[in-house]
Amino acid sequence: MSINKIHYPSFGGSPRTAHDHFEPGAYHLTVADRLGIERLLDNKATRHAPNPSILDGLLRHKLRSARGAPEPAPAGLVVAGSIVTYMISGEGARSGELSMQAMPLPGRILVASLLGATLIGMRVLQKTPLLRDDGEIDTVVVLDVTPPQGDDAA
Fold it and tell me: In CATH, what number does 26-152 get?
């Protein structure tokens, strides 16, 4: 009688692939993204947002409910530093770099914003409700993700 040892990947405890591990509708955060969100909350980087208490609640909810993402982050997962192409209902496609920085710069989507807090942890073709600064609720869908380049993960 021989005993075969089965290797289970660290990201899920089963022999499935990383892509199979993602549950529809679920968010997945890397360790770096979790730490970045916690740092934003600790430093009160959301205080200049139009609705800081709502944004804080959204970020805390994402920390509580998101599943862990495998390291390195799989292709198609929105992480800090990635270039995200997305579409909000009734609008055209847009792109920007998702950033953990508190300072807004052209071409950046701050995680310390309702849009950025919604996008982080999503995957290509995933759609979810988006609370707008004016209180309206739209839908956002991720169309494409370009992974961060080296140390540029902001």
Answer: 3.10.50.30
